[in-house]
Every structure is written in C-alpha cells, then in structure tokens.
Automatic annotation (TrEMBL):
Coiled coil: none annotated. This is Isomerase. The keyword Magnesium does not apply. It holds the Pfam family CHMI. It comes from the Bacteria. Keywords: Isomerase. GO terms for molecular function: 5-carboxymethyl-2-hydroxymuconate delta-isomerase activity. The keyword Isomerase applies. Signal peptide: none annotated.
Length: 123
C-alpha cells in the first residue's frame, strides 16, 4: 500500500541505483510499518531543473516521500524517515564536486478518502 515517490536531480542519473533502492526499500517498509512488500509502489521522477541554495551546478537533490495510510505514531514515522534516509544515501555513489541534499518525508494518506484497486490479468 505505501506509495513512494522519489525525486532526484538529473546530475544523479548515472550515480543513483534506483532499482536497487526500490528493491531494498520495500522490505524495509514491510519490516517497519506495513508487514508485506506486496502493495509497495515506488516511482522515480528525474528533475530536469532544480535550484538549490545559490543556484550553482555543484548541488543535487534526492527527496523521498513515503505516503502511508494514517494511524502510525509520530515516533514510528520518524524512525522510518531516518531508516529511509540512510538507505537512500547508501544507493547514491559520491559525485566529485557535487553536494547532495537528501531528504525524506513520511506523510499520511487519509483512510476515509484513499481508494485503491489491483486487477490481475485472468486471461
């Protein structure tokens, strides 16, 4: 069920192991907050342009948003944020001369308004 969105600067296109990150992230979520990798969905969006700080080209951004159904404690979400931050940092190779800004936000999806459907091909 978690919906994960990862925005990353184009400068990280060759140094960010996106698939490895997603495959490591799903079991982490299962262990810490959701119990199963079955519903985990991660999408990656490369940012064509991003202005950080003074706008120099020596800065890159990696931001992960984890959206979960509401009900987790603030402590559980903070623990998850720290774990995801560490995992993200482990999946980006250092780029000489580039400062990487990495952040994580764990947010709630409303149980009252969230809807989902999975359809398997039965052919």
């Amino acid at each position: 069920m978690p919906h994960i969105t990862v925005d990353y600067s184009d400068a990280l296109a060759d140094t960010f192991d996106r698939r490895g990150f997603g495959l490591a992230l799903h079991p982490l979520l299962a262990r810490t907050v959701v119990g199963s990798v079955t519903g985990c969905k991660t999408r990656f969006r490369q940012i064509e342009e991003c202005v950080i700080a003074d706008g120099t080209d020596e800065v890159a951004l990696l931001h992960v948003e984890v959206a979960l159904l509401s009900g987790r404690t603030p402590e559980a979400k903070a623990e998850l944020s720290r774990a995801v931050l560490g995992l993200a940092r482990d999946h980006v190779k250092p780029t000489p001369g580039v400062t990487l800004h990495t952040s994580v936000d764990v947010c709630d999806l409303s149980r009252g308004s969230f809807a989902s459907h999975t359809e398997e091909d039965h052919a």
